[in-house]
Design a protein that fits this description.
317 residues, mainly beta, Beta-galactosidase, Chain A, domain 5, eight-stranded antiparallel sheet, 3 helices, globular, disordered C terminus, binds 6-O-phosphono-beta-D-glucopyranose, EC 5.1.3.15, carbohydrate binding, Gal_mutarotase_sf_dom, glucose-6-phosphate 1-epimerase activity
Length: 317
Amino acid sequence: MGHSAAVWDYRAAIEVTRDWNGIVQVVLRSPQGASARVSLHGGQVMSWKNNQGEELLFTSSKAIFKPPKSMRGGIPICFPQFGNLASLEQHGFARNKIWAVDENPPPLHPNDSDGKSFIDLILRPSAEDLKCWPHSFEFRLRISLTTDGSLLLISRIRNVDGKPFSFSFAYHTYLSVSDISEVRIEGLETLDYLDNLCQRELCTEQGDALTFESEVDRAYLCCTNAIAVIDHGKKRTFVIQKEGLPDVVVWNPWDRKSKSMLDFGDEEYKQMLCVDGAAVEKPVLLRPGEEWTARLELSVVPSSFCSDNLDMQKTCF
Ligand SMILES: O=P(O)(O)OC[C@H]1O[C@@H](O)[C@H](O)[C@@H](O)[C@@H]1O
């Protein structure tokens, strides 16, 4: 694979399996026992477990694991469209496609290589994709698990076309929580958001922290680079750090919408919360030959964690 074993032992850190549909899944492991499972279907992270083997991502008990639909849970990739605002299918086609493994990926940055297991997945448009979205691109998704069990997703999208194109994007992250009533998000206070439940009306977050007592479907704009999802029930905090992703989408379907989704249990809204690092408000414009990078790092710390520790730098002004 072109890497020295001291830096990265591909065979020791990665296991390749197949799911019920014969689709390749890749398991990354950290030396301390954390793991992440990634499917070539959608380039989707299906599972992320901490050193104690506890699952950190939500998967619906009614999830359908059959292409071409993406599975309800984990981290689907929304590209080249987020939501249903343009002509493509909801959240774009990337989450429904079979990605390829790059067997010879570019090496990790020397400062970034210590103990990480990683896999590079590639998506290029098929002839069918080009009919509905006529833009040639190469999407490289690097999924890494650090020694301490953090999950790092780096997307590199390159315009390999002769003309510019624009897109929107999200890491649609289904976090597993103890009970939604025990959860709060810090880092979104005072921010403007588009409320998808009110025709994308522009509102401003008023509370000290975001808590949940009904359906929420919002795109927070110009967010800080780090936010915290504090789960009092599990006494743990997800720290979400992002680069190149100005927006954060927060979604919980609550009871009524849950009942309308075939691949979601009626009560499962209590155990999940989607918090997506995203670029949705202003489409990303890529000129021929240009590349766009978006980085998301998810880690978990004990609940004594204080949000003062977060790097609250703005990503846009
Ligand atoms: O059912 P889907 O296509 O996976 O989408 C689920 C939800 O995804 C969220 O990110 C959107 O903001 C919601 O509007 C949407 O309902």
